[in-house]
Amino acid sequence: MKKYKIIMTGGGSAGHVTPNLALVPKLKELGFEIKYIGSKNGIEKEIITKENIPYYSISSGKLRRYFDIKNFTDPFKVLKGVMDASRILSKEKPDVIFSKGGFVTVPVVIAASMKKIPVVSHESDLTPGLANKIASPFCDTLCVTFPESLKYIKDNKGKLTGTPIREDLLKGDKERGRKFCNFKENKKVLMIIGGSLGSKIINESVRKILNEILKEYNVIHLCGKGNLDESLKNLEGYRQYEYISEELPDLMALADLVISRAGANTIFELLALRKLNILIPLSANASRGDQVLNANSFEKSGYSMVIKEEELNSELLLKSIKDLEKNREKYLNSMKMSKIGNGVNNIIDIIKKSANI
After folding, report:
1. DSSP 240-261
2. Contact present, 255 and 189 (Cβ < 8 Å)
3. Cβ atoms within 10 Å of 207's Cβ, excluding its own
4. Does the annotation place 15 within a ligand binding site?
5. Cα(77)–Cα(85) distance, rounded to whole angstroms?
6. For residue 309, which of 240, 251, 260, 236 has the smallest C-alpha distance?
7. Is 166 labelled a binding residue?
8. How far apart are CA 284 and CA 287, in angstroms?
9. Which of helix, strand or coil describes residue 137?
10. Residue 201 to residues 114, 262, 281, 308: CA-CA distances in angstroms?
């Protein structure tokens, strides 16, 4: 029996890495040998090496939609990244590449195309990110999460698959989560997810009303790298973490209500888990507006309450938490009626076809 090999790539934020991990168990089941290409210092290196997946680092320049002096130098980093990736691909000879987006993927996808290695990419957001836009001419298939996304994909490369959700995330243990947090009181649990890079405005808004929130809830706060507040370290009922990976399924199982950014991976996980949620999408002023579109789609479907970042303040956040609780059943019923499933099997089928299995 032939041994198949896949190289996965994606990085810059956890959202460009965790969907790769969702595919790993099925790929291993099929007998795939898995390697990973990422950046030298990105969050992907820490996440992937913890999974004992062989990891290669390459040079990668950041892709920007705005003027920056580095826009003149970073193309040379991308070019070096293509050469780095080309050497790795020549050595490993993979049957297929799976790319999850983020600037580190561009050199890998270009190098793979030059070597005639099939490339399957995935876009979680409603509109393609800059990396996937640049890389799409070099891809064979671009998998998407939202039906609305297909109109943005050229040359009939788009396939509606849904987003891959880790199987272990759906099997969290509530009591294990409670034990991990060591909460003394048996209150409802409010979880705040600011993204792997954190959100200053969400962190500050939550911390300003912590005393009010703690009257009703125990709080799990995933505040992002470098955003721990040491003055709150021993506050009863409040647990803050820069980033959680292994224990996340248990903490998600424990949560009764979630306040989150609106990255596509996270919101589809919340939908799959039927978690009551408030979305605070990253402002279009600080991004390409993908989270705003994601959040609007979920609000329209009745899955989420949405607060615009520009309007966010502590008072509005507290009011929204209370309003969400009052309308709990309405939101939960909308989520229960959703027909959106886990994209793992759909994507695996496309990978198999691309690798000629």
Report:
1. EES--STTHHHHHHH-SEEEE-
2. yes
3. 21
4. yes
5. 12
6. 260
7. yes
8. 5
9. helix
10. 43, 14, 11, 12
- Structural domain boundaries of the chain? 5-164+342-354, 168-336
14 is in an annotated binding site: yes
5-164+342-354 has CATH 3.40.30.10 classification? no
Fold match between 5-164+342-354 and 168-336? yes
Token pair listed for 184? 């003394």
- The length of the chain in residues reads 357
> Are the beta carbons of 86 and 107 closer than 8 angstroms?
no
Q: What is the pLDDT of residue 66?
A: 45
The amino acid at 153: I
314 is in an annotated binding site: no
168-336 classified as CATH 3.30.420.40:
no
Q: Give per-residue pLDDT as tens, 28-38.
A: 999 999 999 99
Tokens of 60: 């990668």
Question: Has this prediction a pTM greater than 0.90?
Answer: no
Q: Is 196 annotated as a binding residue?
A: yes
Torsions phi, psi of 196, nearest 5? Answer: -65, -25
Predicted confidence at residue 219, as pLDDT, reads 98
Hey, what long-range contacts does 209-212 have (CB within 8 A, 24 or more apart)? 209/314, 209/315, 209/317, 209/318, 210/235, 210/238, 212/318
When pLDDT is cut at 50, 70 and 90, the band that residue 91 belongs to is: very high
